[in-house]
Design a protein that fits this description.
194 residues, PH-domain like, 2 domains, four-stranded antiparallel sheet, 7 strands, elongated
Length: 194
Amino acid sequence: MPTRLQHLCRAAFEWLIAILLALTLLAGLVVAFTPYNISLLVVASALLVLLIARQLGFLGAASTRAPTNYTALDIDDASIRYVDLLGRIELIHFADIKRVAYVLEEAAFPDLYGPYIESKWIIRTHDRFYIEVMDEAPHRAQLVAAFRQHLESFDERALSAGLAGLAASGEGEWECFRSPDCKDSPDQLQSPPP
């Protein structure tokens, strides 16, 4: 996990680039009819490309943004702590996980542009309950790395197929892990009590 100092440095870098970009564009407007306008346009364009590359993660780590479909997702060596939007806390111990599936389905509520496909993880535990963990870019890599590390037979091919489905906006369910002692089918799973 990044330290507070790393977060502050990243934020300061992004603000510095944004301020330099704004000042360059402002100076370009002020001296628009001088011979320096081409050089200012080049500098502003370079700063804009730098800022976009930073945000997309091509230049160091992408900025840490808060997830939109849950409050927090913390992963340690023994468990996953997931806090949904309603504040419910789910503590999932890796030793208790019996099945993990990557699911793409139409969201329950459309956004401003209409229906869309959302991605999530269905994690079944030893007590026959399952937990839906929303899948978002801020934590996807951490969660996949934790599954790889703690679930012995985590299926990379199923995950790749699921991510390909995500890119194609298709629906489906891809089982990425099933422990040998998991005998029930997915339709026998129960959601946990509220």
